[in-house]
Amino acid sequence: PWWGRLFLKILEPPVRRFKAKAPPDFAPRPARNGAVVLADFVETHATLLRKWPDWMQADLRRTQVRGVFPVTFPLVLVLQVIPTHMRRHLWQARQVASAPGFPR
């Protein structure tokens, strides 16, 4: 849908506008060991990839998925949002890591 394309455009890095706070349940945790954060990131995405074959059996346009917002999304949009959202997080991490004064 048109709003799905707009949502993807807003998420895609580089972030220019439409900065938004994460919902409370998804707010960043206090500082943790970088290796632990990376391991969590990799495991989360490995889990998603294991589900891929099941998703490919579904009607991607008609199957609705409930996300963090109180609305449903077509599965086809969710499967586009996941990598776009991850690119955004990786872009943000690169911005932080390249900032002056960031420990090397």
Could you write a compact summary of the structure shown?
By secondary structure, the protein is mainly alpha-helical.
Question: Could you explain how this protein is built, in words?
Answer:
The chain has 3 helices and 2 strands, in the order H-H-E-E-H. The protein is mainly alpha-helical. A hairpin with a 5-residue loop joins strand 1 and strand 2. The radius of gyration is 16 Å and the shape is globular. The longest helix has 23 residues, at 75-97. The protein has helices at 2-11, 34-55, 75-97; strands spanning 64-66, 72-74. The termini are far apart. A two-stranded antiparallel ribbon has the order 1-2. The mean pLDDT is 84.
The strands making up the biggest β-sheet line up spatially as 1-2
Anisotropy-based shape: globular
SS strand fraction: 5-15%
Helix percent band: 40-55%
Intertermini distance: 43 Å
How large, in whole angstroms, is the Cα Rg?
Answer: 16 Å
Number of strands: 2
Strand-pairing-aware structural class:
mainly alpha
Query: Could you spell the SSE succession in H and E letters?
Result: HHEEH
Low-confidence segments, given as residue ranges, are: none
- Major beta sheet, specifics? 2 strands, antiparallel
DSSP summary: helix tally: 3
Mean pLDDT: 84
